[in-house]
Amino acid sequence: MAEKLDIVNQILMGLQRTSKEIPYHLLYNKEGSELYEEITKLKCYYPYAAEEALLEQHAGEIAAQIAPKSVLVELGCGTARKTGRLLNAVQSRYGSCRFVGIDVSKSALEKAAVYLEKELKAPKAHEMKFIQAEYMQGLKEVRRLCPENMLCILWLGSSIGNLSQTEAISFLKDVTSAVGYRCQLFLCTDMWKDYKRLFAAYKDDNGLTERFIKNGIRNALNILGQHPSLDEEKDWIYQVEINNYLKQVEMYVCFPSGLQNGEMQVNIRPGERVLVEISRKFTVEDIYHLAHEAGFHVHAAWRNATYGCQMLLPAQ
Ligand code: AVI
Fold first, then answer.
1. What is the 96 CA–ligand 1 centroid distance (Å)?
2. Which domain of life does this protein belong to (predicted)?
């Protein structure tokens, strides 16, 4: 109940601002998670394939940078479609591998378990555990279960790009608060690139990203007790902007006829828009800066012009 009130308050705070926004995590209800899974299969959505190719190419080198006897912990492992490769590389280097997947979605964790079982070359040499929890709660639980172990925390998918710089810094600081300094962070980031490629990735011709973003708004309104009709939704316009100054893709829904929820004191004026998600893109300098500000340093990196994976270590 307290959690539900928390979400309602977060949504209301965002919708009562001058520049309106909703929390991006509302994108990942059941429908949104399925749509995101579909988006990752689109050719124009390059980050998925770019990350997969980097992991494929460098899995052995990445495994060599992971401290022996580490427990690998994946944040938001989802269905773990890319993780098997890394786990196999760690197992083949050290003989065995311990893995914990953390996700809020029970069904994603169930799929991950089935998928990894098939992907692993020597399943008996792997110890796997799945925790259904928010990230920080999950990390604290892992630290409780493995008080002495080095943890290698995997954060794939450039999910850090969905946080502002301030949020990203505080998130990374929270990681060390949750698990202490005996950790490594394997962080994947999309790189800043040309407008055309970015725009095409977030405004796909199939309209999947549009549905994904509008679903976030629908979810927010449903939580506020409002259920817009399909006709009303047809009126909403999906807008993508590339913000060169902040180096981010911004995804909005514009309401030509406005939208009111008198009970909740929400008043979106005709023509006003709501920011649903940002997707930040990084230069190498940005990554160094972010790591530094969050109390980490970049220990190793595997990058090309499109995408980057880096191993960060606590700076202390
Ligand atoms: C999950 N996250 C990294 C995706 C991204 O690219 O920012 C979410 C997404 N939004 C629209 N398409 C994909």
1. 33
2. Eukaryota
